[in-house]
């Protein structure tokens, strides 16, 4: 079961990696795709939100960030507020168990200095192929996602970032399930 889940995760990441750039090229200058890249995440047992976790989690995924149509310039400055949608698919593991994690997260962003730095804050939904990792029970396959991150763009088409991502069932499946806080390092290509 674990090997099947890992193969499914790798397959979905591969499909996302191969189809996203092809779709973006067809849009040329007006591409809705902002960036795409791999992410590595880990958790500690003491989360920002919720109760203490039973296991340390590890995430490897691929994320694509899409431009949504709403933006607002902040006065005469180079700063602006924007909207975006982050989609991701990857492999989540803990306590010798692993599964697929896919997310869709709309977010507000604050970018400045000609997009040299961007902050974002969002909330969305995650789908999980596995609900239990060792003795830690997530409750069910659908989880609420909350995330905050910062990205810097040192070069024209490259970025690096750090993100905190929390997922939990928000009490949907009862009070006995635990959420997870992940600390994620991201790099990638910016269009």
From TrEMBL:
**Which Pfam families does the UniProt record give?**
PagL (PF09411)
What name does the UniProt record give this protein? Answer: Acyloxyacyl hydrolase
Check the record and name the InterPro entries matching this protein: Lipid-A_deacylase-rel
Q: Which domain of life is it from?
A: Bacteria
Instruction: Give the source species.
Output: Nitrospira moscoviensis
């Amino acid at each position: 079961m674990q090997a099947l889940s890992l193969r499914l995760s790798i397959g979905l990441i591969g499909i996302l990696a191969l189809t996203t750039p092809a779709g973006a090229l067809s849009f040329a200058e007006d591409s809705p795709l902002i960036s795409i890249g791999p992410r590595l995440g880990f958790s500690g047992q003491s989360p920002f939100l919720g109760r203490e976790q039973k296991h340390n989690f590890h995430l490897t995924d691929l994320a694509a960030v899409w431009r949504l149509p709403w933006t607002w310039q902040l006065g005469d400055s180079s700063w602006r507020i924007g909207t975006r949608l982050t989609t991701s698919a990857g492999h989540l593991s803990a306590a010798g168990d692993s599964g697929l994690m896919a997310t869709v997260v709309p977010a507000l962003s604050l970018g400045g200095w000609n997009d040299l730095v961007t902050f974002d804050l969002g909330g969305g939904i995650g789908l999980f192929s596995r609900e239990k990792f060792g003795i830690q029970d997530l409750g069910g396959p659908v989880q609420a996602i909350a995330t905050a991150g910062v990205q810097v763009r040192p070069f024209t088409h490259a970025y690096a970032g750090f993100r905190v991502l929390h997922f939990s069932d928000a009490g949907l499946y009862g009070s006995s399930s635990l959420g997870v806080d992940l600390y994620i390092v991201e790099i990638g290509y910016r269009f």
